[in-house]
Automatic annotation (TrEMBL):
Membrane topology: Single-pass type I membrane protein
Name of the featured protein: Thyroid peroxidase
Organism: Gekko japonicus (Schlegel's Japanese gecko)
Chain positions covered by the region annotation Disordered: 80-99
Domain Sushi: 774-829
Lineage of source species: Eukaryota, Metazoa, Chordata, Craniata, Vertebrata
Major localization class: membrane
Amino acid sequence: MSGEEEPVIPVTTEEQVLTTTTPVPVTAPGKVPVILTPSSGTEGGVESWPLRSSIPIWANLSTRPREMWTLTLKPSEASRYDYKPPRDPRARHGQHLQRSRTMTPAQFLIFSKHPEQETQAVSRAAEKMEASIHVLKEKLHQKHKRSLLPSDLLSTDVLSKIANISGCLPYTLPPKCPTNCMTSKYRHITSVCNNREHPRWGASNTPLARWLPPVYEDGLSQPKGWNPGFLHNGFPLPSVREVTRKIIEASNEAVTEDERHSDIFIVWGQYIDHDLAFTPQSTNQPSLLGEADCQKTCENQSPCFPIQVFANDGFPINMDCMPFYRSSPACATDHHGVLLGNLSTLNPRQQINSLTSFLDASTVYGSTPAIEGKLRNLTSKEGLLRINTQYFDNGREYLPFVDRVPSPCAQNLKADKVERIECFMAGDSRSSEVISLAALHTLWLREHNRLAKALKKLNPQWSSETVYQEARKIVGALHQIITIRDYIPRVIGPDAFNQYIGPYKGYNHTVNPSVANVFSTAAFRFAHTAIHPVIKRLNAQYQNDPNLPNLHLHEVFFTPWRLIKEGGLDPLLRGMLATPAKLQVQDQLLNEELTKKLFVLSNNGSLDLASLDLQRGRDHGLPGYNEWREFCDLPRLRTETDLVTAIENRNVVKKLLELYGIPDNIDVWLGGIVENILPGARTGPLFACIIGKQMKALRDGDRFWWENSNVFTNSQRHELRKYSLSRLICDNTDVTALPLDVFMLGKFPEDFQSCEDIPNINLEAWQETFQQEFTCGLPTKVENGDFVHCSEAGKSKVTYSCYQGYKLQGEAQLSCTKKRWNMDPPVCQ
Ligand code: HEM
């Protein structure tokens, strides 16, 4: 939706800046004005960046006489640092498909980490800004023969100018938060203005929060492990592949099953992770000027940070390096919303979360207006989401396919070659990554439409927008309830839950809910160790079905066709309900399906999830294991004896010391996953702390948290409490019996209940009477937009908004006074 009453993000155009900066001042005492004269036009097919005029740059070199500098950014430099439109794996795949029908695992990773448009714009701006600073730093270094930090030479004013021209400024200035029906009743799709004093807290496309400052090898942006021979605490970091091989990797048969939890417990974790965090990665396109191609290079050259694969390392494919793209930098801001990121030692490189941090079902609705616009069925009067119009599952809906085809998802090689089954489209772009994840996305699509139809029946006077927003609000609340009430206590255990989360005490506007870098890059990846290498599909009696054999994990990556052509959702869900999860065991961490066959759909390459996790932590400059223990008030572990108190497997402890030399250097993800599991939990104390703190922040810092007063009525809250994941499955599939608590592993039939006995929500709590709402009569519907109503201080009001791509003209909010609307409705153009 867009319109005048949308949060307003200030944008200063390039032209505006250039007119204010043309004359070059030469007077500021103790400062050197520098002119950056960037190149324009293109050379050799390389797009140059859009700095088309000089910018006066003041260098704070008090010991130097004043002098004038001209920095010219040559096309070759531009090509080195400039953002290239990402190689679109979908478009490329179109050609590729005609040749070989499959993509390499690395291309699948690019596809699954492919940023959507708005994220691309943020990344592009941040990369340009970082490149500008880098070029300036190098030039000044050449001239002054000493290392200079950007903060030595750039005033805030100049930084703002660079930020503006690079395109960062709009993403760093605080947006205005309007107050109307829409903004007080419903969360914005980007979650901007959830916190009215800190409007970007938790919003999509903002930096991941830092709970501890990052550790980069140059203090600014170079990952840990970037410079060969660089020592950390006197020791070099071991290669991530070596760590994987020696400590993490386990054969597919080395699975100890979890006696308490079912596989859906793990899948819910991945689904919820995709509600909270998506860290886009840089994508580069090798130029004609000799720039590195991250698909091929074995050298650390930004944005490539390849993972070395050694001879005899057991990797299935003969390759020297596994491709790795660094995560995109963010246009970072400090807590006042002032631009500071990427510019000084105090403000080193940050990474972006392109999703809303909140538990808000962004997996269903998206995190930007553009995605939301694609997912909605705007022609329906019932506020529905779009569905797949080609295929149905026993009459029930599937997710729609992505709009850019052919998509890279695998095809059934035995099927008719003309029939293609594309990747699914959902609120998060990774929905087709594994079919079990796609199944959860599908359940929620069905639930939204089911709820919306029921709400419209109860409230025929509601506009389509109202029905959509009310159903979205319920679905969001259900995500929160299932996660905080049912899932998290089992992950971190009852004691850590009480210690770090505790009972809800109301909204706290001082809490920053943004997802923390350490949470998404390390702690919440804990469950990569609990992924079962085998997927089961079961019949209505929860027995194996000869037509649906067990599959290895690598056979279900990016394969929506298996859902559609191999029995629909039900057999897969039954498999998740009745199969035990894999247990995280210190010497059985990730199975070969993940360390040797990640995203392998044919024999044209391979990836290793454990190495990606470790390398990602280093890419983001996450401090080491002991720093995080200290952050959590856990004792630092300095010696082998100390380590054994936290990690009982002595063999693992020995290998950790052999590889890292010193406990401080242990990568935090690894340290977290090898710790002894807490009682009643599925993580050790470190990750219980980080996950607990994050969940508390997501709950207490959310103005729209379902338990916050005025979000739902008492009777609505009473109904919502009855809800469960088992009810979701009952209402949206033909599964008729399942455990009441689906995260707990049960035996069929004794532990399974009939859907008839599983509590349900009574939606009458959402029924409103016509008189209550519209004493002024129904507001006029506008073309290309819609309205929602609310009542404030006994007064009826409506707020209009426009569909994505249309701009609202006129007043957005109308009030009902003396039985008449106070003005004409606006128009959407
Ligand atoms: C078959 C199941 C799964 C697969 C194939 C998978 C695969 C991946 C991949 C390829 C990445 C990106 C790695 C990188 O380049 O940094 C990733 C990230 C992540 N995964 Fe998983 N994962 C699975 C299950 C899970 C589960 C069960 C959880 C948690 C309960 C989880 C949590 C995360 C988190 C938090 C991230 C970081 C997200 C971000 O910030 O972008 N994953 N996963």
